[in-house]
Structures are given as structure tokens and as C-alpha cells.
Amino acid sequence: MTEIAPREVTPPPLQAPTAKEKKYDRQLRLWAASGQRALEESHVLLIVGDENLGSNSTVAGVETLKNLILPSIGNFTIADSARVTDADLGVNFFLESDSLYKSRADETRRLLSELNPDVTGHAITTHLSEWLELENSLQPYNLILICAPISLEYLQQTCAYASENSIPLIYMHSAGFYASFSIQLPHEFPIVDTHPDPESTQDLRLLAPWPELEAAVDSIGDISTLSDHDHGHIPYILLLLHYLREWKTSHNGQYPSDFKEKTEFRDLVRSGARTNNPEGGEENYDEACASVLKSIAPPPVGSGCKEMMNMPSCTQVTAGSPNFWIIANAIKKFYDTHGVLPLPGSLPDMKATSTEYIKLQSIYKAKARADVAEVTQTVRQLENDLSRMSTKIVDSEIEAFCKNACHVRVLTNPNNASIPELRLAISDAKTFAGLPGLIENDWEGMLPVFIALDAPRKMDLSNLSEDADVQESYEKAVEEVERVQGGELHNISSVLGGMVAQEAIKLLTRHKSSTQMAQHLNGR
Amino acid sequence: MQRRDRGVAQSLGGPLTKRVKESRVLLVGAGGIGCELLKNLVCCGFGSYRSAPATENGTEVSPAAGHVRKAEVVVIDLDTIDLSNLNRQFLFRKQHIKKPKAFVAKETASQFNPSVAIDAQHASIFDSKYNVDFFEGFDIVFNALDSLAARRHVNKMCLAADVPLIESGTTGFMGQVQAIKKGVTECYDCNPKPVQKSFPICTIRSTPSQPIHCIVWAKSYLFPELFGTSEEDSTDMAVTEGDNAEEVAKLKEEAEALKKVRRMMGKSEFAQEVFNKVFHDDIERLRSMTEMWQSRKPPEPLSFESLSEGPSIVKQGQTLALQDQRAWTLVENISVFCYSLDTLSNRVQGGENVIEFDKDDKDTLDFVSSAANLRSHVFGIPLHSEWEIKQMAGNIIPAIATSNALTASLCVMEAFRILRSQPAKANALAEPTANNHIPTKAQTTAIGKPEELLGGSKMVFLTSKNTDRLITSQPLVGPRADCPVCSPVYAKVAVSEEREETLEALVDLLKRTVGYEDFSMTTEAGIIYDPDLEDNLQKPLSELGIIGQSNGFITVTDDSDEPKVDLVLSMTIRRSPVDNAEATGLQITPEKIELPPKAQAAYANGDMYDDAEPEPVLAPSAGAKRKREAEEEVESAKKRAKSDVYVVEDDGAILLDD
């Protein structure tokens, strides 16, 4: 009885699956342990603006926090100097009758904390003017949420801080049926786990085979002498490599390059299939032909990855560089040396005997491991050179980067642009210049929501468009916002809280890409 | 002075606020979306109407005619709370685990506003007490379900009761909301839903080639044979045309032999016997069928003696079973196999006669994981960790708080649109007016700008791929003329409890009311009447399963040359006394029914609907089967996507977390 071949597995946890793993099971299946860790290390600050108009979007803010506390962020802080009113009680689920006249920050913190004992809540009950000015007042937080309306001074201050410290910031506003939010991204915001389509991640290296893969092709020998069974079970990857050799001998050592050549190459492969069988063909040859156009290509390097390798943060790492850039630098060195990225190492399903498939799989996996080892060595060297030995980057982080290297991307906010609401409020010339064009092309009619909610009061709205209907839509929207006097409708704030939390999670877990546009909602 | 409902009143305006407060809504499901919906409903003023003393007495949900409709939120859920719910079902805390979801949801939501009226019911929505009368008692119904069968059931009940339904579901970062109203919009079944891929029995039992085949074998064959009732076959596998009849017969014998081994449960050699039976003897038999292995690698039998390490093996298995993140080795799988078999046998000896596989029952998961892996080893298929197997065996769908929060609030947004557009029902149960169930012509969209349906209600999608917008919507579409579920006309038959009527009386009533000539009648159990099937005519209706207190339907099909649409009858108990002069104790509402011509059926393709080809039966089967079938159908709703996550996508119709 033989032991089965060793498989690549995640390091075994020595203890039982914890209650925690069970509790978060459904979300771990979405963003994995690495995403969960990032969430749990985060501290989210919710700033409620100081204009005390109605409920001041607090329901939206509190609902956002609820959606972040449930999946377990590490800490949250609510900064709100207001006291609970009757109207708050009717619309905010995280207040109870006894909360009346107490500090809204304290009360919502207390009731939100009941949702998840793994999360620690804090409250700042003093006015913004008293704590924001303090030194390092924003230092503990890695995500800032702002509930509008807020006075310009504090908005500016917070946005500037977020920008300087590379922290994402989300601004949200909810009133009646209207809601909107915008994200201010840091100058550079790397996303490793871009969750690309599995089809697009296939990197088979057919045009850059390494010695072990070449040896596997050699080992098939003369395929014309194989039995029908063996012939029909050559993994298609080896078939393609085999025919590529044949092609090269008749094409001056060149690989098929353009569409025409690839089509010819496909015909060459197809001509090798045995058809004197009941099926009239061979499945592995069908698979080979089907993948020619996709697989016969140089090893891929994603555009996001190329951009990343050219960014100064990548080429000039320092002792203070985040882990991401240290690994990026090592990846770049690897790429410069080999002309390819580290091999991801996964194989698609294919017609083959189990033995042959496992053999081929281990060739790819061994190569991927070797590539990771090389990158890891560079990282360790860098850590040494930069005297970063105290904060060693964990192996799994390097491994994950190598696996996704092709699809890594860095979101950027090149000019450190602040959120549109702020640009509008400070009468930013460029923003104002662009406004007529936006109004003209606002085919979904959502801009009035944005203008009505967040345009500064001094702004002249009486002549935005020459089209009477369009102009009327702005006036109506402004009326609507005035009518509700900052009163929130629970479900609209709940939608907004859901959207903001969704984006916050993507930002915190570095999962997929986040929207960079202001989002508006008209729930009427 | 500020009022509690200032925010709601200011946003919705006076008339709509009043409508919302006075309405009576049904929430089916108190899971992920259900918890969020309940919060949204109470925070938006639903169930908060107070004043008329008449509404104070009745907490009972009585369908009695003339009963005053009480403003409240009725929430129904059959489930109890599990640890893995707590990451999103925010009305539940750790101390609530194992308690009924409906009750705890009410308790927590009531803390927000103690005066809000919530009626929590711990029950299955398939229960016969939730009949058409019951559904008619609501202004709006919200579906917050995790099962295709239950969704389809509520869809049909709402069509029959002519109550607007708001249907929703989420999967990972995605979600969907759809408003449904009889004759106005598409119904849930207007678009076919994917059906489960059922594996050919020979693939599962003889020639597995993927891990999922081995998992299905362990979960749906081996486990029930050893611990289940094993009476009925699982829908996970079925005899298909491609299956070899001879082999199928052999497999039956094999299962018989396994039953003998089962009788040894409790004896010390039980584990060894089971092991040798399924991983050695059965494999040897398979191996001997050489023609089967001409183009496949033959399986390699395992033998227990060569591996056994004495009693310590069970203890090792216990330790190993805790390591669910890595794939166990062959020997480790044997340890876990022996350990879980031991544990499960002890449970049976302890009085638990039948154990069903449940992904959250660790003992059953241990057994299925180890058995599936051992079988994979035998067939040269890669082994998996228990964590991975759990996902495949349990059809686990990733679920997060944010998508549920978004989806639920969007549901309420649609509810406002509907309430605004629909005239308020009388404060008593609405009596169906003539033809009010018949699809109106107004639904078809005029050329050019589409007509707004249901007050501009939309089909709303949450997406994650599109980074420009998170929420997209499209206008609702009118019903499909050939939809087998919503194209029929629905009517109600009141059955007298004091006078037992025969099927003939019903047939006569239909001829009289509708003007049928040739027609047939079908219940869930099959055809009960057609022009050539008269055996049942003299039978009392109750014998055919047609009773007043039920949630079943009779489909009446017009068999004439130019057929009218089907008529679907629901049953209710007759309230008014039977006048002796009346010819029958049956009453049909509406009293006059005009059926429009039937659209050409371009849609029903047999395999979509179980009841497409009903077999004639003479006696109805027990209603208890329903729940089971429903559950099986749930399984069938979820098919395996190519990634390692189970997702079902069908033209934008996403199914589903609860």
C-alpha cells in the first residue's frame, strides 16, 4: 500500500477549527483568511458632521458600522457630539427608548457592540473642534467614514489627513429618498487579490518551457508508436508542446505568432488525431485544438502589474516601505532576470490518466515553488539590506503575491484629488468648469441628487441649464432636500450603509477593485 | 415637539406614511435577508398603527370573513439559529443558538420599538394552514428564503391570492430584488430556473472521475445505507439512459449486501466490515469487469488488515478530525473513517435510529469526508480537505452582511413604490371581484416608452463586476403569456364541512360556471378527472385530497380544440351555511369566470416541471411528502459552478442566501 503523493496544502492548523472560523465560515469562503485578518486589524472611524441637520446621516453611518462589525473589523470609533432625540429613536435601530437625551455616540456604540463580542467599540462624545485639533487625533484609524453634512473646515482637515497618510476615506449623505457617497482613495492603493476570472489566470508557459517540462515531452517518445489508449491520454499540454517542436523545425525555430499561423498550427495538431476509432477522434486532441488560440502566447504580464513595476514606490524601496512594495520590488527583479513572472502553477482539468495528470501537475507545482523560493530569497535580502529584520514579511504573503503577480494592480489617485463634494464646496475651478458638461450628459438624471444634497449653500443653482426641464429637475431636487430637513428614511440609509460597507470591506480586504466615482441613489 | 416617526413622515409624506402604518405584511424567512427586512420594516413604521380599538383584540391570524385586518408584520420561519448565522443575521446572538429564528427575531426587533406589532410563527411555509385565505390577508408579502421550492410555493400562493410579492436573494457580493404581481409583472416562474445536475448512477457507484462523484457517493449512497432510512433514492443520482442496465442490477445487489453489514453495527468489527465491503470487495467486483476499464484506470482496492493499527486508530481519528484545513493522508482518512463510524454507531446504539447527513453535524461530515477521500484514493482522484468537502457536500453559498443589508433595504424601497401605486384594500378581507385574477391587457408595453408597472417598481440587481455602479435596475416586464404558473386564472372553491360533496358536484359546478365541455382536472397527486377517467366521479372530494383546509391546488385544463387558459382552483372552508335548496355545498368565487384563450405553449419542456406529465392516480398520496420533495428540490437548485464556489446564475436570476 503506497502513500499518496504529497500534495500542496496550506500549513495545517494544529488546533480544531475554532468557533470563530465556524462563525465566519460563509464570508471566509469569499475573502479567505488573509482578507479576514486584514479586516480584524482595522480600526474604522465614523465622524458625524457637526451641522445637526435632522439626524445628520447617522443612520447611514451606524448601519455601515453594523455591516462592518458583523464580519468583524477589529475596532470602531464613533465621534458624535449630539444627544439622542425622539426622531432618532424612530429611525435608528441601534437606539432604544432609554437612550433618549443621552449621548448618541455612547448609545449607538453600546448597542452596536452587542452585535459582536470580537469587536471593540469606542465613542468620542466631544465636539469635533475639541478633539480633531489634537495631535495624532486621527492616527489610530485606517479608514475614515464621514456622515454629512459637516462644516467645510473639518471636512477639509480630515480629507487632507487621509490623503497625507494614505488612508481611504468615504463621505456619505442620506436625506429622505436621496443618498450619495464618494470615496477618496490614497495616492497609491495596491490590490493583490484582484479575484480575476479563473480562465484568465491560466499561465501554461507553452512558449517558454523549462527543462523539467521539456523532459516530460521527451518522455513521450515517438507518439506514432503508442497504443490507442496511451495516444488518447496524452495530456493536451504535452501534445501542444510536442507539436510546437515539430512546427519550429519547419519554421526556422520560430513559434506560431499571428492568427494565421496559429490557425495553421491548430490544423497541424488536428491532423495528428487518430480517427479510426468509434468516436472518430480523440478528446485530448480536441482539447489541444480548442486551447491553441488562447495558450499559444508569450507568458502574460498584466497591464496593472507592468504599471506597478514602473512606479517609483516599486523601484525605490526604503526601510519604511509597506510589505507590498518590498515584494513588488522582488517580483520586478525576478521579471528583469527571467523575462517572465513567477509561475502560478495551476493546471486546468484535462483528459489524461490520473498518473500522467498528477505527474504534470507536480512539474508545474515544483516550478511554482521554485519561483516563490527565488522571490522569497530576494525579499529576505532586501529586508536585510534595509534593516527590516524585525518585521519579516510572512511567507504566505509572498506566496499569494507570486500566485497573483500577473493580476496585481495598484489603484491610484494621481493628483490626490479629494472627493467631489469637497471640490464643489471649495469652489474648485476645474470642478466648476466640468459641471456644465456633466449636467448636459447626465442621462440618468442623478446629478440633481448630488447637487441638491451636497452643493454649498452659496452656490447659485438658478441657472444650471438652459433646458427648462433639466433646470426644473434641479429645483425640485433642492426642494425635496429642503422638505425632509435632514430626516432620514431608514431603508434608504440602510441601502447607503450597505453600499458604503461593501466598498469599505473591499478596501480593507484589498479585494477586487473599488468604485472611484460618486454614487447617488434616488429611492423615490 | 419632535415625534418618533418624524423621519418617516417627513420622507414619505402623510398619505404614504398612513398606508405604511396601516398595512399588514408577511415576511417569509428570518435568515440573512429576513433579519434585515424585519429591521427595515419596523424602522419604516410598518406594524406601528395604533388607535382603533377593534384591532386590539385579535392576535390570532384568522381568515374569518369580515375580520378586521390588523396592522402588523407576520414573520414565519422554520429554522433554528446556528453559529454560522451570526456573521450576518444580526438579530441573533450567541446565547440564541438553537432557538427558533422567528421568535428571537421578534424579540430583538421589538426592543427597538416595543409597541410595534410583530407576530412570529415558528413553522414551515408549506404548512396547510398557510392557505390562499391566509395570503389574502396581507398587503404585501416579502420572500426572504433560501430555497427554490419555497420561493416557487410562495410565488404561486401570492398569484392565487392576488397579493404583491417582493422576491429577493443574494450570493456573495451579488443580490437581486424583483416585485411580482399577478397579471401585471413576470412571476418568479416566468423564467425557467436551473435544475440540478443529477449524476448518472453508474458514475457515482462505479466509475467516478471527479471528487464530487465520490462526495455524492459518500453522502447520498453510503451514508443513508448505513444510517438513514434508505427507502427512497436520492435525487443526486438517477438511472439515466446512459446507464448500463446490467450494472444497475448489480448495484442493487451490492446495496443489499451492505444492509447485511449494517446489522453488525455495535460490534467491534463493524468498521472493518464496512471498510472491506466498500473499499475492497465492491472494488474487486468492479475491477473484474474489465470492459469498464479499457479506457480508464482501474480502481485499486484497499484492505483493512494491511492498514489497521489496533484500537488507537479511533483515537487518532478523533484528533485528526479537528484538522479540517488540510487534506488528510490515506492512513489519516482511515483513522477518521473508523473514528466517525464509531461515533455514529454509538449514537445509533444510544437510540438515534436514523441519522441524516447535515453539513453542520460534525460526525456526519467527518464520515462523509473520510469516506469520499478513501474512494477518491481508490480511483486515483485528488483528495480534499474536510473544509473543501464541506462546501461541496453542503452546497454552501458564501454569504455576507452587506449584500443582505442592501438587498433587504431595496425590497422596502420597492414596497413603497407598490403601496403608493396600489389602492388600499378594504379594511376587511378583500372579496375577489369578477375576473380580478385575469391577466389584464394593460400589461403589454406600448411601443416606445415602456409603461410603468407597479408604480415604477424595478427589477434591481446588486453587482460586483461593474465598478461604476453597485446597483443597477431595469423596468419590470409583463407576464409571459405561456407561463405555466401565472398564465392560468386563479379561483377559489369553498367546500362545506357539513355536507360532503363528490367530485361530480365539482365537475358540474365548473361546467356551469365556466362553460367547459371537455376538460381534465389534476391535483399534486395526478389526474383525478378527464373525459375518459370517470372512476373518481362518485368519490367524496376529501378522498381525493380536496379539503377546505389545505394549500393545494387543482388545475383545470381545457381539452377543447381552441383551449382557454387553465383554471387553477384553491380550496377554502365554506363559511356560510348551506341552503337546503342549493344543489351543491360548493361555492366558487368569483361566481362568473371568463377564461381568455390559451397562448401557444412554447415554454414548458417537461424536465422543468415535475408535474408536466402527471400519472393518473386513484388515491392521493400523503401531503407529508411535500416537505421532503421541497428540500430535495432545494438541493437541485444549486449546481456546481466551475470555481470552488456554488453559484447559480440564470440570466441574472440569482439564487440565494436566505
Protein architecture, described:
Chain A is α/β, with parallel strands linked by helices and 524 residues long. Chain A is 48% helix and 9% strand. Chain A has 22 helices and nine strands. In chain A, strands 3-2-1-4-5-6-9 form a seven-stranded mixed sheet, sandwiched between helices. In chain A, strands 7-8 form a two-stranded antiparallel sheet. The termini of chain A are far apart. Chain B is of the alpha/beta class. Chain B folds into three domains: 249 residues, 3-Layer(aba) Sandwich (Rossmann fold), CATH 3.40.50; 195 residues, Ubiquitin activating enzymes (Uba3). Chain: B, domain 2 (Arc Repressor Mutant, subunit A); 114 residues, Roll (Structural Genomics Hypothetical 15.5 Kd Protein In mrcA-pckA Intergenic Region, Chain A), CATH 3.10.290. In chain B, the strands form four sheets. Chain B has an eight-stranded mixed sheet, sandwiched between helices. A six-stranded mixed sheet of chain B has the order 13-12-14-15-11-16, sandwiched between helices. In chain B, β5 and β6 form a beta hairpin. In chain B, α1 crosses α2 and α3 runs parallel beside α5. At the A-B interface, α1, α2, α3, α4 and α16 of A face α1, α3 and α16 of B.
What is the element layout, followed by pairings?
The complex is a heterodimer of chains A (524) and B (658).
Chain A: H1 19-23, H2 25-40, E1 43-48, H3 58-69, E2 75-79, H4 86-91, H5 104-113, E3 120-124, H6 128-131, E4 143-147, H7 152-164, E5 169-175, E6 178-184, E7 188-191, H8 211-218, H9 228-231, H10 236-249, H11 259-271, H12 283-295, H13 303-310, H14 312-315, H15 323-338, H16 354-385, H17 395-404, E8 409-412, H18 420-425, H19 429-440, H20 447-454, H21 468-484, H22 490-509, E9 519-522
Helix pairs in contact in A: 3-22, 8-10, 10-12, 11-12, 15-16, 16-17, 20-21
Chain B: H1 6-12, H2 14-22, E1 24-28, H3 32-43, H4 54-57, E2 72-76, H5 101-112, E3 118-121, H6 132-136, E4 140-143, H7 148-161, E5 165-171, E6 174-180, E7 199-200, H8 201-205, H9 211-227, E8 237-238, H10 245-262, H11 270-288, H12 312-320, H13 330-349, H14 362-378, H15 386-393, H16 401-421, E9 458-462, E10 471-475, E11 489-495, H17 503-514, E12 519-523, E13 526-529, E14 553-558, E15 567-573, E16 587-589, H18 625-637, E17 648-650, E18 653-655
Helix pairs in contact in B: 1-2, 3-5, 3-16, 9-14, 10-11, 12-13, 13-14, 14-15
